Amino acid sequence: MSITTLQIIKKDGTLEPYNDEKIKTAIKKSADRTTKPLTDTQIEKTIKLVETEIKNLKKIPVQEMHEHVQSGLRSVRKDVYEEYSRYRNYKKENALILNELKAQADGLKYGSYRENANKNSDLIATKRALLSEMTMKKLVMNYELDPALSKAHNDGDIYIHDLGDRWSRTHNCCLFDMANLLRNKPEKGYAFKLNNMEYHEPKSASTALAVMGDLILSASSNQYGGFSVVDVDQIVAPYADKSYNSHLAYFSEKLGAGNDKYKLAKELAKEQTLNELRQGYQSIEYKLNSLSNALGQTPFVTFTFGFDTSFWGREFTKAILNTRLETDNVVFPKLVMYCRKEINTNPDSPNYDLFVLANKCSRHRLYPDYLSFDSGFLAETYERSGKCLGPMGCRSFLSFYKNPITNEEIYTGRGNVSVVSVHLVKYALESKGNWDKFYELLDKNTKLAIDANQWYHGEVSKLKGSSNPLFWVEGGAWMSVGMDESVAPIVKGFTASIGFVGMNQALRAMGVDTSDHESSQKIAISILERMNAQINKRKDEDGILYSLYATPAESLCYTFNNIIRDQYGIISGVSDKDYQTNSFHIDVWDHISAPEKISYEAPFHQIAQGGHIGYVELPYGVSTSSLESIIRYAMDKGMYFGINVVSAVCCNCNEHGDFIDECPNCKSKDINIITRVCGYLAVLKRNGEYRQNPGKIAETMQRVDHSGFGNNHTSSYAENTGVDHITTSKMDQFLN
Known about the structure:
Blueprint: E1 7-9, E2 15-17, H1 20-32, H2 40-54, E3 59-61, H3 62-76, H4 78-88, H5 90-110, H6 124-143, H7 147-155, E4 158-160, E5 173-176, H8 178-182, E6 192-194, E7 197-199, H9 205-219, E8 227-229, H10 232-255, H11 259-290, E9 301-305, H12 311-325, E10 334-339, H13 341-345, H14 352-365, E11 369-372, H15 377-385, E12 415-423, H16 424-431, H17 435-461, H18 469-472, H19 488-491, E13 495-501, H20 503-509, H21 517-542, E14 545-550, H22 556-568, H23 594-607, E15 614-617, H24 624-636, E16 640-644, E17 647-650, E18 656-657, E19 671-676, E20 681-686, E21 689-690, H25 694-701, H26 717-720, H27 728-735
Parallel strand pairs: 1-3, 5-8, 8-9, 9-10, 10-11, 12-13, 13-14, 15-16
Antiparallel strand pairs: 1-2, 4-12, 5-12, 6-7, 11-16, 17-18, 17-19, 19-20, 20-21
Helix pairs in contact: 1-4, 2-3, 3-4, 5-6, 9-10, 9-11, 10-11, 10-12, 11-12, 12-14, 14-24, 16-17, 16-20, 17-21, 21-23, 24-27
C-alpha cells in the first residue's frame, strides 16, 4: 500500500511527507534491543497494519503516528512493541536520568561517597571515576538490562552488584597468574608486552617486586573486584635465588679467594638479598596504599603465602609479616596465610615459626587471615590436585574446572564475572511466616539472580583480548588468546555468584528463635541447600559455573535495610538496626564465645563454596597464645578465618589501642582507625572523620568481643584498655 498525500505534523508544527522507511528504521532499532530481529515478513505486516489505519487521513500528528505503529507492533511482536514503547519515551527517561545524575553529581562535588571505604572521594581523580560509574549505572539499568531484572533490582528483590562497571563488560575478580606473566615465553622471546614495550623476565628479586607492583596497578584497573596474587612466596623465591647468586659472584670477585673470604661473601650476598626482599615488598605496600588505579580506588589486592618451605620463600614471608608489623594504617595487600598441620600449624612443622609470626602480626595489624587446608572442600582440592585454591579478593572462591585440552585442574588464572544477591529478609516479610510462600519467592528471585549472571557472562564472553591485554593475551589468565580474538574460551572457566544477605533477620521475620543456635543453624542450612540445588541445576543446563556466595555487604547491608524500612517500617529484631547482618553470620551483637561462633559458622563455609569468611571480635592486646588457640581451632573446622580488633592510632600523640571517639591518652579526636569491614580491612576513621556508610558504622559500633567479656564498641575503651586481655587458661576453658 502506498500513501502519497499524507502529511506528518511534526512536534514543531512543520509538515513532512509520510515515509514508511522511517517506520521500518524505528521498529528495527526496537527489535535490535530484543533477543532477535524482525523478519521481513513481520516488518511488512506491521507497515500494512499501520497504513490500513491511516489510509484515509490527509494529516496526522507525529504522536498519533507513533500510536498506530505501536498498535501494529502489538499484533506482530509483543516484545518489540514493548521496546518501541520504551524507546518512544526515551527523551523523558533521559531527562529523568540526567536530573537524578545531576543530583548525585552535586552531592559528590562537595560531599563524600561512603559506599566503598577504599574509595577516597575527597580526591578529584576519584570524583571523576565515581561520576563515570554513576553514569554507566544509569545506562545499564535503563537501556541494557532485561526490564524484569531492572524492576527486581529497583524493587529490592535482588541486588545486581557493580552495575556502574558493567557497561564496559569488565569482569569482577581473579586469581592473576603473576608467575606465568613474569616468565619469558619461548614462542615470544620475552615475558610480556605492555603498551607495546617488551618486558623480559626479571633477573633479581628487586626488579621482580618492582615490576609486580606496576603490573598490579595496571592490570587491576581492567576489572572491578578483588585482584589476588596467589602463592606469592613461591613466585618471589626463585628471583631471590637469582639475586643471591649475582651478589655472591660479585662479592666473591671483590674479596678474592679463600674460605674465610668466601664465607664473608656468602653473608654479604645473603644480607643484600634480604634487603631486596624487605625493600621490594615495602615498595609494593607504599604503592598500593598511596596510589589509586584508573578506577579511582585503592586496588583490592590479596597476597597468599605460607606453604613454601625453601629458604628464600620463608624469608620473603618474614619480610611481608615484619613489614606489616612495622607500619600503621596499611590496608592492602590483604594477607592470607595458608594453613596445614604438617606444613605450618603443628609445632614440629617446618613453617611453624612463620605461623607464630603471623599470629603476632594479626594481633596488632588484623592481617593475615588464615585459610585451612586441613578439612573441607579446599583440603580435598589440595589433596586431589596438589594445588592451593586461594580467595579472589576478600572471600570469593572458584569452582572445580579442568583444562579441556590437558584435563588438568585449573585455578590460578581464572576469575569471576559477576555477583547478584537475593534479599532474604524481604521474602520473609512478604511471606508473613508462610514457609511455602517464602520458598516460592526464594526460588523466583534466585532464578532472576541466575538470569542476570547468565546475561552478563555472555556479555563478558564477547570481549576481545585487546580489552585487557595483560590478562587475556600476555599470560595473566589460565590460557591466552590473540588481541583480536574472543575471550570466550577463557571465560568458560569463570564463575558467576549468587549471594545472600541478612539470614538471621530473615529467620526472625519467619518466627524462628535465633537465640537457639542449633535449631536456627539447621533452618539456615536448609535454605542455602535449596538455593544450591537450583544453582547446580542451572549450572548443568547453562554450562556456566554458578556458585553460592556469602555476600560481603559493605553498603548492601544498609541499602537492603532501608528498603525494608520504607516498605514495612521498623520491626523489632528485623529492621530495628541500621543494617542487615552479613550473609550467614551470627549477629554482631550476639554475646557468644569465639569457639561457639566458629562452630556455628563453620558448616556454612562448605555450603557457600563460591565465597565465605568467618571472623571473631577480640579485645586489643589479646595474647598470642590465646590467639593461636583460636586460629588453630578455626583451622580444624576447615574455615577461612580472620580476627578483628579496633586498631586505632592517635594522630596527635601516636597512642595505639582500641578506642573510637577520642584518644584515652591525650583526648584528641584526630584518630585513624582500621577495622574489618567484611572480608577485608578498611579505614573506619581518617583524621577523626568517618569514612563508611551509616549502616556499616552502626554495625561496627555494635560488635561485641567474643572472648567472653561481652564488651562492645559503644563502651568506653579507655576503661578496658590493658585490662580485658584474654588469658590462655580462659581460652582453654572455651575450647574445651
